[in-house]
Amino acid sequence: MKILLIGPPGGGKGTQAKVLIEKYKIPQISTGDMLREHVKKLTPLGQKAKNYMENGELVPDSLILDMMELRLNDKDCINGYILDGFPRTIPQAEGLDFLLEKLNHNLDNVIIIDVPDDRIVQRMSGRRVHLDSGRVYHILFNPPKKENIDDFTGEKLSIRKDDEEGTVRKRLDIYHNTTKPLIKFYDKKNILNSINGDDEIENVSKEIAKILNNA
Ligand code: AMP
User: What is the atom index within ligand 1 of the atom nearest the CA of 10?
Assistant: First the structure.
């Protein structure tokens, strides 16, 4: 089961991926999470990627493809995986095709989770994180017990720079511009499905399950 989830930043891809991990026992491969780990650990890749990420810009394709080549060769990818946040550009999609061919893998399904921009801004600008643990809260949907304080450590919460409204709008513009060509790319392969992501988590999961069960 090799699935690609496409959706705007903050559109619930990560949440849906977690449901699929449980169901199919396959790993989620999120380039955003991998890059954040590199930045945190101050690796050479992290140092190169940091500024792009903080400004809401895309990290260069060559860095992403090198990182993915290593990841897709890991043993846990043998039975399948959920790609989340990659590919984001046509060169990345072409690079992925090349990698898949080398590994003798096939992408089974590409699922687009659609969410209107204003909903995304509402979701993301309310996000607060505990930086050390990565715990994420939301001032409306998942507030901490005490305002702006982490439930477990009592430490202050922060707003990630890439969750600020200006940055979110910029990321959405980039998302729309880069996704359009990707949609065409995968539509030609007849593996593309689109679902409404502006709904309860369970309903979105059901839509995804319907698609995968029919595959
Ligand atoms: P995400 O958590 O997927 O929204 O990713 C956070 C940030 O990491 C993005 O705003 C980009 O700067 C960078 N990033 C993640 N995945 C990619 C990718 N496939 N190509 C380029 N940049 C990426």
Answer: 4
